[in-house]
Structures are given as C-alpha cells and as structure tokens.
Amino acid sequence: MVLGKLTNFRRINHVFLSLLVSVVTLSASAAPRKPLDDTEVLEHLPGRAGDASSRELAAMRAAMTSAADNPGPAAELAQRYFDLAMARGDPRYVGYAEAVIARFSDPLPASLRLIRGLLRQYRHDFDGALTDFAKALELDPDFAAAHAWRGAIYLVQADYVAAQGECDALQKIGRKTLFGACIGLVQAYGGKLEAAYRSLQQALADTRDNDNRLWLLTRLGEVAAWRGQPALAEGHYREALALGRDDGYLLAAWGDFLLDSGRPAEVIKQLAGWEASDSLLLRLAEAEAALKLPGAARLAQMLDDRFAAAKLRGDTTHRAEEARYRLRLRGDPAEAVRLAAENYRVQREPRDARILLEAAIAAKDVAAARTVQDWLRSSGFEDAHLRRLGQELCKGASPCGAPLPAVRAASPAGVPR
Amino acid sequence: MMMRRCLFCLCGLLLLLSLPVLAHKASDSYLVLEVKGKEVSGQWDVALRDIDFALALDRDGNGEITWGELRARHADIDAWALGRLALQRGGTCTLQVADHLVDSHTDGSYAVLQLTGACPAAVGDLTLNYRLLFDLDALHRGLLRLSLDGTTQTAVLSPDRAEQRFVAGEVSRLSAFGQYLVEGIWHIWIGFDHILFLLSLLLPAVLVHEVGRWRGVAKFREALVEVLWVVTAFTVAHSITLSLAALGLISLPSRLVESAIAASVVLAAANNLKPLVEHRRWMVAFGFGLIHGFGFASVLAELGLPQETLVVSLLGFNLGVEIGQLAIVAVFLPVAFALRATPFYRRGVFVGGSLVTLLIALIWLIERAFDLKLISA
Fold first, then answer.
1. N or C: at which end does chain B have fewer Cβ atoms within 10 angstroms?
2. Domain span holding position A304
3. Residue B269 near residue B201, CB atoms below 8 Å
4. Measured between beta carbons, which residues in chain A are less than 8 angstroms from residue B65?
5. What residues in B contact A302, CB-CB < 8 Å?
6. Cβ atoms within 10 A of the Cβ of B298, count?
7. Is A90 on the interface with B (CB under 8 A)?
8. A332 and A303 fall within a common domain
9. Residue A271, in any domain of the structure
10. Residue A264: inside a domain, yes or no?
11. Distance CA B70, CA B195 (A)
12. Do A341 and A369 share a domain, yes or no?
C-alpha cells in the first residue's frame, strides 16, 4: 500500500508539472472545457433582453437584406452601427458597418461613400477617408456631413487653413450649428480660445438636438479648461452629462479634466462599469494609481492585455493611449516617447501634443517633441498648461529654437494671423 | 460560525475582485493548427458573440447563450466554420470537427472547435484560405499559429490577406534551438529517475564522512565545489551518450537502458546509507551519466529531431537539460546547506530520503528488468 503510493510519485509529479505548465502557458485564457449543464449561461449578449436597440437593429438588418440593391437601408444600418461603436466604445460595430458597406461595389453612392470615409478615419486611414469624402462631395456638393467630417480630419492633421475651407462651405449651405462647431474648433486649435468659446456657444444656442448639444457642451468644457476656467468647464461637462447619453468622448474628456484637477476619486465614481472601453479603462487605472488603491495593478494589467491583444492583430490606433499608459502607469518614458511620436505623425490634436510633450520631458528627449514645439509656435495654441510643458522641455536645452511667445490668455481678440 | 461566514464573504469579495471585466475588442478568432506530413490537427476558438451574429444562437431571445443553445447548433456551426476555412497541401485537405468545447478570452466566451483532417501530400507548401465572418464583420481577424512539420509560424488573416501560403522546410535555426531548449528543461523535470539520481549524489554534498560519522561541511564553498564536480561530470557524460545515440551512432535496447538507470539510482542511494565511494563522487556521476544519456536520447527520439536543424536542436536539448538541472541545484543547495547541521537534515532528509529513494528505485528496477507492472499505475 505504502509502496504503491511511493511509486505513484512519478505520476503525481507528472500531473503536478502538467498543471504548472497549463497555468503558465494558458494564463491568458482558461483551459477549454465541456460544460455539463445545458442551462449553463456561457455568454451575455450586448444589449439587454428586450432592448429596443437590438430589436431596432434586427429590423434594420432585415430591411437591408430584403432591399439588396438599395443603398438607403444599408447606409442607415451602417450609420447606426457606427453610432453604437462611438457610444459604447465597442469596435465590433465598426466591423459590422464596414461589412455592410462592402456588400456594394464601386462606384458607391454619396451616402455610402460618406460612411466608408467615417470608418476609414476610425482606422486612422485619413487619406482613404479624404478620398471618400471628396468623391461624396463630387456627387453631392452640398453634402454637409462630408464637409463636417473632412473638416474634422483636417483639424486632426493640424491643417487649419483647409479646415477653415470646410467651415466656410458649411456656412454657405446654411448649416449654422455645424458651422459653429467647425469654426469653433478651428479657432480653438489655431490659438483663438476666446473667439472659439463664443462660436461654440452661439452654435449651442442655435440647436435643440441633444446629440449636438452634448458634443458642443463637451467642446465648450475643453475650451474653458484650456482658458484656465475650471469652474466654467465643470459646468459645461456637468450639463453634458445631465443629458444622460452614453458618450465615450465626453466621459474621457471629463475624466481627464478631473484627473488634471486632482480629483481621481470622482473619476472612479463616474467611470465605474466602463472598464470595457480601453480609453476609459486608462482613465480609471490612472485614478486608482493616483489614489494608490489596491486595484490599480489589476487595471494596469488589464490595459497591458488589451494593448497586447491589439498588437496581435496589428492594430495601431491606440498609440496615444498606450503612450499615456507607458508614461503614467509603467514609468517607461522611452517607450512612451516612441509611441507618442508615432501617434503624432498621424494625429495632431492638442491631446496628442500634450502626451508627446509630457513623455519627451520625462525622457529628456527634446528632439522628439520638436514637431509639437513647431506647432505651438505656428498655431499660437493658448492652453497655459501645454505652453508651460513646452517651456519646461526647453529649459536647459539650447537647440529648442526661437523662444515661445508668452501666454496670451488675457488677450481679448486673440492673435491676429 | 461567525468565522466561517466571514471567510465566506472574504472569498466572495476576492471572487468579485478577480472576475474579469470583459473588454470591448474587435473580433478575433484564434486558430491553432498543426500540420505534420499529411496529418492535420488543431483548435479553433470563435467568439460566441460572433457566432450568434452570424447564426443567431440565442433562440429564446433572452440575451443569453446557454450551453444547450450552443450544443443544439453544433452541426450548423461546423458547416458554417469549415465552409470558411480551406487548407491545401498537394490538393485540398479534409477537415472535421472532432469535439466541441468552450473557453473564455478577454472579451467573453468562445466556442472551441477541435479539428482533425488529412492532406493529400505529406510534403510541400501549405496554402490556407480563411473567410470566417468577413462578410459580416470587415474588422474580424483570424489569428493563426501554424506548426508546419515542427516549425511554428504566425499570421494575421484579414479580408485583404485571406489566403496565405506557408513555405515548408524553412526551419528557423533559432526557433528550433529555442523549442528544443524548452523540451530539454521539461524532460529533466518530468524525468523523476534522473532527478532522484542527481539528488542522491547531491544530498551528501553538504556533509563530510569522517570516522564512520557524518558532519556538516564548514564552508558553502566546499559544498559548491563538490556539487559543481558532480553536476559537470553528469552533464559531460550524458551529453556524450545523448549525442551519440541521437545521431544514430550507438543504439541500446531501451529496457536495458531503463533498468540500468533504475540500478544507478539504487546504487547512488545505497552509497549514502553505507558509503563505499566517498570522495570521488563525480566519477560515479560520470559513469552513470553515460547511461542516463541513453535515457534522454529515447525521449528525444520520441520528439523527433528535424534533420534540417539536427545539430542546433541537439545542442538546444542538451542545454535545456543543463538549465533544468541547474535550477534544481539552485533550489536544493542553499536549503541543504542551511539545514546541514540539523538532525532533520541528517536523519530525516539524508538517511530517510536516501532510504525512500532506494525503495522506489528498487521497485523501478524490478519492474523494468522483468517488464512487470508491480504496483505503480
């Protein structure tokens, strides 16, 4: 009996080591298994049972299938999927929308061109998107959405002259709200924060549509924060949140505002339950880390897994977020600079500039942020915080170029161009 | 009672903390394929959410997919999935789903299809065509890990790169080296007889036998030098025979080798109880190491050595065995040194351990020599 146990060592040893190896190699996923009970719930589908949106989606899909050659229902469905992706931060819907568009072959009608452009810009294929918008506008020169989206891409690329052209087109066709939104951003990024604030507020006064209001209020919050008016900014954010709609961009902007204001506890309260979205998970992880909460390591690990999964599929659209994660949560400024600089080659909005500056300062790599310095100088962007970062980077570094002009937050009429 | 309840809530809390939050992520399937000659096997993990989107699994429309709902549609799922995956090696390969399991990844539950199949040709390039979900989700990607005749390659399958060709025979030397290195480490760890032999020789390394009594060595250095001699001798010896056997220059019947290995453990353990060899233990390690080398060679024969990378693979395996041994020594030696003066070590570990080892090895010896299944399962 005893001997039997002893000689079983070999087997026990083997079982133990197999277990160990399974744990090591399969830590990313549990081991495949066969459920025993037919009633075991394996998966909860997005959208609750009886959810109006799932029924609506099913109906739209049926409409698209039955009208095989008609682009109308397809465009509606694809747009709906895209909106869902934006609201919930779930990229599967982007893939669904792309597949709906892919059922049609070139030349696409203007409506489908527009949506294909949206999907391309989502994947940061800005050139492809601009081509689609241009074609859509060839077919329908007064296509407001195409002008607005083209303007948005020019803004991301920091081409403010081209963006201004799109705003002018919107004004010409009498789209007051879209014009206000467009010109507001061109002014803000181009160094005229006060004028930007007025334009956005005018646009807000002109619209009753809640989606538009949410967008404008979010941007007003950002502009107010750049102008160094946190109380005003908070008022706008709160008004936007009070509209009660899911919006990933709003939550991210509000989360950043709270983090910048040293209020991480509120971030945790606001973003609880939003871990599924990568960008909101980043804000949550930063907040938990700031408070030194025990869960911070777990959130950082989750982010790590997400970025690893994205890398596996060759997805590079997360570089700005990954740079922030590397810098603020992993203390790896060298890698953060690399990612932020790569991102800045594609996207050049103020938040992209900021992470590159922060990473460059931490890594003491003045050269890496030269493009940002150039942009600060040429645009005259007025955010005091960003300008301070720019000056900090230059401190003690002689090849920093001409000194940056002083902050002009008090200037009433902005900067003449 | 209180105590138990509190422990229970703590467990609940921990569970809550560790429950994965499911990520929003674009759709991926995980396809692991092994093609060895004509034979195909593999595993394909496809997200339930994606299958539901294609085939509507949620029959009762309650927003939940149960195992019953999934099981009822296995035939449909197989037809759907296999209709969107094609392998070619000298013609179209057959593919079947051998079993259905489930698993979870960061973004939810997945159906696991275990695949088997056969190709018309045992050699040549492999072409893979993948079209799963592309008609419904243009951002879907198939993440492929393919082992083609022992060489592992990875690829991302997308609508733009739905068909890919994998060249056989271009084995990367580095990857072969790495692969066999890991195998080497693995096989010293699961080779319990090798470990027992090594430990039998190492147990007395922290002790000195003087006038019929054991006492602890004075300095760590003494023990270390002794261990280094033993491990190096063992290594050199089994490297020689492993290489000779793996290259097919010498071949011994496995029953003889296995019996001799068991005998080596018996003798090493017995020598601790009644010392015959006290000082030149490295010579024992060398002599028996030659036999253990033949044992490793049989493991390597089961693994199969790729002809194209014969030398690097052999080198990798050998080095892996070394690393595995050194890991054991690194754990064993400091502990043994710290405990060397205690009765626990001298009586319990040294004498007791040697006795147990002796018994186990004796049973192995009888089993192997007479080809019996005595007691062990």
1. N
2. 258-315
3. no
4. 41-43, 45
5. 21, 23
6. 16
7. yes
8. no
9. yes
10. yes
11. 46
12. yes
Is residue B7 very low, low, confident or very high in pLDDT (cuts 50, 70, 90)?
very low
Residue for token pair 């095989």: A68
Are the C-beta atoms of residues B300 and B188 closer than 8 Å to each other? Answer: no
CA distance B360 to chain A (A): 6
The answer to whether residue A26 neighbours chain B at the CB level (below 8 Å) is no
| Structural domains counted in chain A | 2
* A335 and A384 part of one domain: yes
My answer on whether A299 and A332 are in the same domain is no
Contact with chain A for residue B307, Cβ under 8 A: no
Q: Three-state SS for A148?
A: helix
pLDDT at B182: 84
A332 and A388 share one domain: yes
A95 found inside a domain: no
Interface probe for A, chosen from B18, B25, B115, B195 (most Cβ of A below 10 Å), is: B25
CB within 8 Å: A40 and B66: yes
Asked whether residue A267 falls in the same domain as residue A346, the answer is no
Please indicate if any CB of chain A lies within 8 Å of the CB of B80.
no
Nearest-neighbour CA in chain A from B210: distance (Å): 32
Helix, strand, coil shares of chain A as percentages rounded to 5? 70, 0, 30
**pLDDT, tens only, A315-344:** 888 899 999 999 999 999 999 999 999 999
Q: For B152-160, which contacts have Cβ atoms below 8 Å and span 24 or more sequence positions?
A: B152/B179, B155/B128, B156/A312, B156/A313, B156/A314, B157/B31, B157/B128, B157/B130, B159/A102, B159/B134
What's the token pair of residue B299?
A: 């493991």
Nearest CB among A10, A90, A310 relative to B376 is that of A10
8 A C-beta contact, residue B217 and residue B346: no
Residue A366 belongs to some domain of the structure: yes
pTM exceeds 0.90: no
Q: Which of B328, B326, B288, B296 is nearest to B314 (CA)?
A: B296
| Residue B23 CB contacts under 8 Å (≥ 6 apart), including other chains | A275, A276, A278, A281, A302, A305, A306, A309, B106, B107
Out of B23, B43, B190, name the one closest to residue A14 (CB).
Answer: B190
A335 and A372 belong to one structural domain: yes
Q: Which of A51, A281, A314 sits opposite B156 (nearest CB)?
A: A314
User: Cα distance from A96 to chain B (closest Cα, Å)?
Assistant: 4
Task: Please name the residue of chain B whose CA is at the shortest distance from the CA of residue A301.
Answer: B20
- Per-domain boundaries in chain B: 25-166, 173-369
Query: Measured between CA atoms, how close is A49 to chain B, in angstroms?
Result: 5
Residue B231 Cα, gap to closest chain A Cα (Å): 22
Report A:321-380 residues touching B (Cβ under 8 A): none
A30-80: per-residue pLDDT in tens? 589 999 999 999 988 876 445 667 778 888 988 888 887 889 999 999 999
In this structure, the answer to whether residues A394 and A364 fall within a common structural domain is yes
- Asked if A309's CB is within 8 angstroms of B23's CB, the reply is yes
| Span A240-296, pLDDT tens digits | 999 998 888 899 999 999 999 999 999 999 998 888 888 899 999 999 999 999 989
Q: Choose one of A315, A334, A360: the last residue of a domain.
A: A315
Mutate to test the interface with B, among A38, A45, A105 (most CBs of B within 10 A): A45
* Interface touch A6/B360, C-beta < 8 Å: yes
Residues from chain A contacting residue B25 (CB–CB below 8 Å): 91-92, 306, 309-310
User: Could you tell me if the ipTM is greater than 0.90?
Assistant: no
